[in-house]
From TrEMBL:
A Pfam entry, by short name: E1-E2_ATPase
Major site of localization recorded for this protein: membrane
Topology relative to the membrane: Multi-pass membrane protein
Family matches, as SUPFAM superfamilies: Calcium ATPase, transduction domain A, Calcium ATPase, transmembrane domain M, HAD-like, Metal cation-transporting ATPase, ATP-binding domain N
Keywords: ATP-binding, Cell membrane, Membrane, Nucleotide-binding, Translocase, Transmembrane, Transmembrane helix
Record field: transmembrane: 63-81, 87-107, 253-274, 280-306, 743-765, 785-807, 819-841, 847-872
NCBIfam families documented for this protein: ATPase_P-type
UniProt protein name: Cation-transporting P-type ATPase
Keyword ATP-binding included in the entry's annotation: yes
Domain spans labelled Cation-transporting P-type ATPase N-terminal: 7-80
Family of this protein: Belongs to the cation transport ATPase (P-type) (TC 3.A.3) family. Type IIA subfamily.
Subcellular location: Cell membrane
Length: 884
């Protein structure tokens, strides 16, 4: 026996039962128990997860955290050998930063996982099974190969099964294939060996929309098609986000720069004759001044705030870096069914009386009476209440038929099967006689017709009429509609019901309609320079019609590739095919969708993939950013995704892209803001060594700026809402750096020196006011020295309070942004000023940070330098706008 059942579809029901050692009585209880031990539980094995302690540990052991650990260790060493210099407090503060940042990052990831913990069961929990000729209800996990399961309308298929008895079975395969149309299933042997195509196989995770059957289980757990796709998902490697790569790069550059400068200036200090521990403290000060300790907390908090904004816009972010990754996406590979469309059938168009009619339009009353009668009465729907349940296509037809007079009680049925591709219902008329109502594929129904109806007139169904209806059928099919032919006949009571001599009522075209907001969202994608490519398991005609309706395809001859073609193409050929201006993929399997993702990535694209089915999960995991549907999506898809859309609206993706683009810009804003203060923190140490003056700024005061006063305003910059023009430009180039040369030049060569000028001026203003002379040594506890370093600190913070406004945009003027447009910014500035006053004017602040109260004259002296920074930066922006 082949455990994967690749040939079981070709066997007769009896042969299939025999091959699996089963019978019409089912397995015995003892044999089922034995096989459960041999084959294992009917469960998809979850991907191995790292223990929580290891996940938490990683948050404290990445490269940037290691640099901070090193800085803390050096501070503790200095405190041990030269106590009383504030080094111990500095080390504690740095450790606190590492712990808070790591714990917050861990909590964000853990909370997102917990939000999805209730969504991880797709297969049914209980199922009816025949064992020892008795019908039992057992857990789905207890099924084994050889079991006979009894499935009815609305049941989820619990394992891969071979149908052995069937009545009107139609199965929704969308979760595995992406195709929206239910497929008929029967018990007869099928030459097709492909499990997804064989007409007598039911696959785990799919849904019976109509009919009932007895089916033989031939594969369970990870041996099912469902399990195979789950395995692909679990083995797909994690993709590092562009933001993670950039933060890693920035961290290394900044850390190596800080260490390099620390070592260089330690050597300079030794050369000019500084005592060892004073020189060591000086080197640590250089390192601390150049390492932006608040960078990672601010990045994390900025991403967290963006996730909260996205949650309000109905997008759940499972991994924080996914926010920014989506913002730099260049290609969206989107599923059709349930993503662009509503995953429900609707009657869109009719062809009767020799003309096309839109289903929503009105026409002369009674002109379509027979057509609507077939739609209303020819079905296998159930009515548990006022509304029907069953095949979505039959529900759509029933709703279209509307309230019309009953033709009499239903007395018989010729059921649908895959060979005939039609079904008929017989009703008895109250005045005597019977009616036969027939619907099915046009190629199956039209040959049975001898006349066609135009109102109440019947015309011969001659060659001209046949050509008319076939051209109408082709026209509707080319526009992606599923076409059904409807016919009827009256015959005397007592005569056998036959599907012959029918009168053709007309054709009905059904579609899975697009979501109403998708067209506008696609237009926004075009405006933002995003390429949107449909990748679906549905028919190429249907996919192309929907793509044209949504403006995904606008040229007359796009490239349409099916899954078979993708399978036969080499990676290079597929990569070259993606260069076509417009391309569409149809009839695509899970592996092929993943190949398309990898081909796009090989072209240098940053790929976002949307999907809701089990078949989408490997591609969601492999992509740079996976986006799953929260309402209609399967648990496997949600598990594999980075972002889950809580409202299933494609438009929400565009909103998320907007937020993602804003995140990158916001990180650049607070990088500029944070790095600017590095220069006024370094210059005092350079002056201390090279000019032999008292140290204008202590290490603990540097930390007060980096981790205290700067943090909330930087966070406020990270919370800036998307700018109006963020979706009117193309995605940023893949190679564009977060820490660019223009950013460094602006922070280090322009804004930083302006701040340093004000800081040093304030320091010397206090010293000269107290009568200090060049070359005079001051004790670290001298009141004038404490006031002078405090003045230097105050000047830096005041300049940063102005700097936060000019950093809101690298080119636009500060007055273009409303003052109350970012309330967090005002709150951050208020907190910054409040913390500064605590540091300067409270005994606790003076003791912790080595400060002393300042007279009002010092504040008045430092403030113009801060305003000068704002004026100079706005002048620079004006020049850039004029040049551009």
């Amino acid at each position: 026996m082949n455990p994967h059942g690749m040939h079981i579809a070709q066997q007769s029901p009896e042969a299939a039962l025999a091959a699996l050692g089963s019978s019409a009585r089912g397995l015995s209880a003892a044999e089922a128990a034995r096989r459960l031990i041999e084959f294992g539980a009917n469960q998809v094995t979850a991907a191995p997860r790292d223990p929580l302690w290891l996940v938490l540990l990683r948050e404290f052991s990445h490269f940037f955290a290691l640099i901070l650990w090193l800085a803390a260790a050096l501070a503790f060493v200095a405190a041990y050998f030269d106590p009383g210099q504030g080094m111990f407090e500095l080390g504690l503060a740095i450790v606190g930063v590492i712990l808070v940042n790591g714990a917050f990052s861990f909590w964000q990831s853990y909370r997102a996982e917990q939000a999805l913990s209730a969504l991880r069961q797709l297969l049914p929990q209980q199922v009816e099974v025949r064992r020892d000729a008795l019908t039992l209800t057992v857990p789905a996990a207890a099924l084994v190969p050889g079991d006979l399961v009894l499935l009815g309308e609305g049941a989820k298929v619990p394992a891969d099964c071979r149908v052995v008895e069937a009545s009107g079975v139609r199965v929704d395969m969308a979760t595995l294939t992406g195709e929206s149309r239910p497929k008929a299933r029967e018990a007869a042997p099928d030459a097709e060996a492909d499990p997804l195509a064989a007409r007598n196989l039911l696959l785990a995770g799919t849904l019976l929309v109509s009919g009932s059957c007895t089916a033989l289980v031939f594969a369970t757990g990870m041996h099912t098609e469902f399990g195979h796709i789950a395995h692909l998902t679990q083995t797909a490697g994690e993709v590092e986000s562009p933001l993670q790569r950039e933060i890693r790069r920035v961290s290394r550059i900044v850390a190596l720069l800080a260490l390099g400068l620390g070592v260089a200036f330690f050597a300079i200090g030794h050369f000019v004759g500084l005592p060892f521990w004073a020189n060591f403290m000086f080197a640590i000060g250089i390192i601390v001044a150049n390492v932006p300790e608040g960078l990672l907390p601010t990045v994390t908090l900025s991403l967290a705030l963006a996730t909260q904004r996205m949650a309000k816009r109905h997008a759940l972010v499972r991994h924080l870096p996914a926010v920014e990754t989506l913002g730099c996406a260049t290609v969206i590979l989107t599923d059709k069914t349930g993503t662009l469309t509503q995953n429900r059938m609707t009657v869109r168009e009719l062809f009767f009386a020799g003309r096309h009619h839109l289903a929503a339009k009105r026409w002369p009353r009674g002109a379509d009476l027979h057509l609507r009668a077939v739609a209303r009465f020819c079905h296998n729907l159930k009515f548990p209440g006022d509304q029907p349940s069953g095949d979505p296509m039959e529900i759509a037809l029933w709703q279209f038929g509307g309230p019309i007079p009953e033709p009499g009680p239903r007395v018989g049925e010729i059921p649908f099967d895959a060979e005939r591709r039609r079904m008929s219902v017989i009703s008895r008329h109250e005045e005597g006689g019977q009616y036969l109502w027939c619907k099915g594929a046009p190629e199956s129904v039209l040959p049975l017709c001898t006349s066609w109806l135009e109102g109440h007139l019947a015309h011969p169904f001659d060659a001209a009429a046949q050509d008319l209806f076939r051209r109408a059928q082709d026209d509707m099919a080319d526009r992606g509609l599923r076409v059904l032919a409807c016919a009827w006949r009256a015959f005397p009571e007592g005569e056998a019901a036959q599907e012959a001599g029918l009168q053709l009522c007309g054709l009905i075209g059904l579609e899975d309609p697009p979501r109403p907001d998708v067209h506008g969202a696609v237009q926004r994608c075009h405006g933002a320079g995003l390429r949107v490519i449909m990748v679906t398991g549905d028919h190429p005609h249907t996919a192309l019609a929907i793509a044209r309706e949504l403006d995904l395809i606008r040229t007359p001859q796009p490239v349409v590739l099916t899954g078979d073609l993708v399978r036969r193409m080499s990676p290079a050929s597929l990569q070259l095919a993606l260069a076509a201006p417009e391309i569409l993929f149809a009839r695509v399997s899970a592996e092929q969708k993943m190949l398309i993702v990898q081909a796009c990535q090989a072209k240098g694209e940053i790929v976002a993939v949307t999907g809701d089915g089990v078949n989408d999960a490997p591609a969601l995991k492999c992509a740079d950013i996976g986006i799953a549907m929260g309402l209609s999506g399967t648990d496997v898809a949600r598990e594999a995704a980075d972002i889950v859309l809580l409202d299933d609206h494609f438009a929400t993706i565009v909103n998320a892209i907007e937020e993602g683009r804003a995140v990158f810009e916001n990180i650049r804003k607070f990088l500029t803001y944070i790095l600017t203060s590095n220069i006024p923190e370094i210059v005092p140490y350079l002056a201390f060594v090279l000019l032999r003056i008292p140290l204008p700024l202590t290490v603990i005061q540097i930390l007060a700026v980096d981790l205290g006063t700067d943090m909330l305003p930087a966070l406020a910059l990270g919370a800036e809402v998307p700018h109006a023009g963020v979706m009117s430009r193309p995605p940023r180039p893949r190679g564009e750096r977060l820490l660019s040369w223009p950013l460094l030049a602006r922070a280090y060569l322009f804004l930083g020196p302006l701040e340093a000028l004000g800081a040093m001026a304030a320091f010397f203003f206090v010293l000269q006011g107290a009568g200090w002379h060049y070359g005079e040594t001051l004790a670290p506890s001298a009141p004038v020295y404490l006031q002078a370093t405090t003045a230097c600190l105050v000047a830096i913070v005041l300049a940063q309070m102005v700097n936060v406004f000019v950093c809101r945009h690298p080119q636009l003027a500060v007055w273009r942004f409303p003052l109350f447009g970012n309330r967090l910014l005002l709150g951050g500035l208020a907190a910054e000023l409040g913390l500064l006053l605590v540091i300067v004017y409270t005994p606790l602040g003076n003791a912790l940070f080595g400060t002393a109260p300042l007279a009002a004259a010092v504040w008045c002296y430092a403030l113009p330098f801060a305003l000068l920074l704002g004026v100079m930066e706005e002048a620079r922006k004006a020049l850039i706008r004029r040049w551009l």
